[in-house]
Amino acid sequence: MPITDRVKMLREKSLNAKETLSSERAELLTAFYQQETGMLSTPVKRAKSFAYLMEHKHIEIYPGELIVGEKGPAPKNAPTFPELCCHSLSDLDILDTREKTSFHVEPSTREAYEKTVIPFWQNKSMRDLILSEMTDEWKAAYEAGIYTEFMEQRAPGHTVLDDKIYRKGMLDFQAEIDQSITKLDFLNDPEAYDKQEELKAMRIAAGALIRFGERYAELAENQAKAESNPQRRAELEKIAQVCRHVPAHAPSDFHEALQYYWFVHLGVTTELNTWDAFCPGKLDQHLLPFYDLNVRGCEYYEELLHCFWIKFNNQPAPPKVGVTAAESGTYTDFAQINVGGQRPDGSDGVNEVSYLLLDVIEDMRLLQPSSSVQVSKKNPDKFVRRAAKIIRTGFGQPSIFNSDLIVQELVRMGKSVIDARCGGSSGCVEVGAFGKEAYILTGYFNLPKVLELTLHNGIDPRTGNQLGLQTGDPREFASFDELFNAFEKQVLHFVDIKVRGNNVIENLYAKYMPAPFLSLLTDDCIARGKDYHAGGARYNTTYIQGVGIGTMADTLASIKKHVFEDKTMSMTSLLGILSANFEGHERERQLFLNRTPKYGNDDDYADDLMRRTFEAYLNAVDGRKNMRGGEYHVNMLPTTCHVYFGSVTGATPDGRKAWTPLSEGVSPVQGADRNGPTAAARSVAKMDHVRTGGTLLNQKFTPQVLANDEGLDKLVSLVRGYFKLDGHHIQFNVVDTETLKAAQANPEQYRSLIVRVAGYSDYFCDLSKTLQDEIIARTEHEGF
């Protein structure tokens, strides 16, 4: 269906808007906290600060808009969160001038930071508190690149909505909160007062969103009165009507449903800067009750969805601070929309809106929102094939998930079957029970770096610091098993350090940074009278993401084969070669690259080592108790951290040179999978994905492979076959290497070239050269 002129105009404005750092939220929050707030409890104070933001933030309805509201004062204006991490003036200069993905900083913004924001928030942010509470050994491992820590930059996130807002308005939530308050037992429950304060805070937050909608209704009414064009006047009157009804009440039509969600989205991401933006969840199933072609034509619904999509694209991810202000390289905020999958009763979840959403994804071709198709054996091949037609256009969307396996993963973690079926993926590939779970990613874990320390008896060869355990001089190891046992001890040691830090951080967020608005949207926070950050959710999961599994498999294969089995090289020689970064040892490097079993080729020799590494990491993390009444689990993805982790890791015995990227996700090492995509998928499927919370597999095809119906059918078969083997996720780049190289050399000619990076798509020319090179190096499949 053709895109309307309205949508063309709004889309073009979104694409052309310059990403800008906005100090508005920071200034408003500072103004609130500079007031005399008396003896307010922390939750109530946080709720009142949220209400202050929603009452005073700038609002505007732009020409042609049907869905209204922005996170900042204008499209592409990114707010900042000084209570979490306060940008320095140096950060602002870096963001304004960095070569790629810069944020424009107005002189007035810099002045506001210099005179108001920094003086108030310096040394008062959560980042300051967290880093001051971490031990020296935690900081040493963190600075060495053994792991990262999300919470020192952003609040806990990976929050996904279920269908509750399509059944209840904010007034209904307030009534539910009032009932919970009346049930508090101040005689026998020592936590009754704390619960009361949290519930009061949730009630205030619900009222704040109602008032936000009213402000837009008033603005639309005023604009309608001044509008001379009858058609636009009628649209503004409709917007006013919508905003009067939602979010106070449950939506009654498609327009209200979309606008209600968008108000909620803005509320969650204004309250706190969540790690990965709030997600709508199973949007096709949520919207189906409001979709009636007998009442409105398909063009009506599609245009509203186009406008909805543009709203997501207007929201760049809030920029980082410190070193990562220079390194962070994407505007993508990781809001993911799930399409397809299963219904609560386990039946086929694909419906008319599913196909409508796929049409919108193809029409809009925007980086945000990210989109995924959840594929169950119950879904028709027609659905998967429709997604494949979009994939072959070459912008990395939608990614594809195994819905049946996700249910198994979630049930294994303790979810009910129905809650699992109503869940899915968010962010990159991580799974949770939508609307009922606080599943928090705490950072990435550098497996190859831990092996590097093992090969140096716990010393980091990059710095000479003793970071790990003294597990023995590897030159004295008599067997490969002795080496691997030492590696397992090091993994456990560093996981212990990270978990000890994580447990402190979870307590700090529960005590100092409650999120009452997010809490009222998450079962069972109202019933328990507890915050999202304090164990209020029905399910509470903490994830640590393993990185470099492909590099590990190939590295261990080299050591096992050449040092311990064939004995063509001593450990002393190997360590010398690595220390020299292969200088003067190209013959040995080629031996590692070309005469060693490689993960990704359906070769059990290397694949078993991948599996053994996975089991060692899983055993170190899985099932530990967190501070919110839940457990730790693993997932296997890097976003772009495999580039950073590679930059702190020396040469590895798989032939990789020092400081270059590690393997990404659960994908084979770039270029190592030489037996085709099916062999690669079979290798990856040997991992027990059901015991993870998500894995990420990237594959790259030349456009010619998918140019005809036969190619599409084979892609569908590849997906179905991988999922039959219990693979979790797969996504595709459809672009040839020559195009990527040409874009790298002449970026001005390829500004619209989009690629799949990890769990997100991005403009190729906006990526760092290192990341561009890594994508170019991925195996290019020319057939199945």
General shape: globular
Q: What Rg do the Cα atoms give?
A: 26 Å
Average pLDDT confidence is 96
**Terminal-residue CA separation:** 32 Å
The total of beta strands comes to 16
Sheet with the most strands: spatial strand order = 3-4-5-6-13-12-16
How many DSSP H or I helices? 31
Helix content: 40-55%
**Content of β-strand:** 5-15%
> Sheet bearing the most strands, described?
7 strands, mixed
Structural class: alpha/beta
Unreliable runs: none
Structure description:
- This protein has 784 residues and is α/β, with parallel strands linked by helices.
- It is 48% helix and 9% strand.
- A seven-stranded mixed beta sheet has the order 3-4-5-6-13-12-16. Strands 9-10-11 form a three-stranded parallel beta sheet.
- The longest helix is centred in the N-terminal third of the chain and has 35 residues, at 192-226.
- The chain is globular.
Concise overview:
This protein is of the alpha/beta class.
Q: What attributes characterize this protein structure?
A:
alpha/beta, seven-stranded mixed β-sheet, three-stranded parallel β-sheet, single chain, 784 residues, 16 strands
